Amino acid sequence: MKLITETLEHVSCLTEEVEGKKKYFIEGIFMQSNMPNRNGRTYAFDILNREVQRYNTDYVQQGRAFGELGHPDTPSICLERVSHIIKELHADGTNFYGKAKIMDTPYGQIVKNLIDEGAKFGVSSRGMGSVIRSSRGIDEVGQDYHLVTPADIVADPSAPQAFVRGLCENKEWIFVEGRFVEQDIERAKKQIKRASQKDLEALGIQVFESFLGKL
Fold first, then answer.
1. Domain coordinates in residue numbering, the chain
2. Among 10, 71, 146, 158, the one annotated catalytic
3. Residue 71 among the catalytic residues
4. Looking at 83, 124, 158, 196, which residue is catalytic?
5. Segment 166-214, tens digit of pLDDT
6. Of the candidates 126, 127, 77, which has an alpha carbon nearest to the alpha carbon of residue 103?
7. Whole-model pTM?
8. Residue 22: burial class (beta carbons within 10 Å; 0-12, 13-18, 19+)
9. CA–CA distance, 7 with 46 (Å, rounded to integer)
10. What angle (nearest 5°) sits at the alpha carbon of residue 213, between those of residues 178 and 141?
């Protein structure tokens, strides 16, 4: 078994006034099944649904469904880095929708400040399991998959265009679930600068796919 993480973007950031106090939430699609993700892996609906039901029983209903800020590289929750608590998690078709409340922890305060400044977030699920290459050449997550958390809060480029903008702004380390080495970034920058506006979008996709292939 190995640690498996998957990132989805475009969760919504919400605020609510409760007795004069501002409450912060994120909500949206936390996980997806029955389709290859950008890492080339596919999760069967039955596997994710089983794990979501277990997670709801063991964690959400017990008030201990925590998530962290950033990309943790361990299969356990570090309470010092907890930023939010997951309040809802359920299937919506083949997707799994969730809602989490931002907590008054040190890392939760960072998230709140970023929301106040208009930041956009993604979420990254974390679990343990095996990956099996099918006869069709698809990497399928195995039956032994064990969900650790459906949503750590991350800030990743959401598309090739955003990835290209990050390179041109000299952001040397662009995280998804790994990173470019420095010479690859410099090579990509030179390609982008030489490209005409007409070719820029196609080149952006090419550079982005090259990046994903190195994960």
1. 2-154, 160-212
2. 71
3. yes
4. 124
5. 333 333 333 344 444 444 555 655 665 666 555 555 555 565 556 545 5
6. 77
7. 0.70
8. exposed
9. 20
10. 80
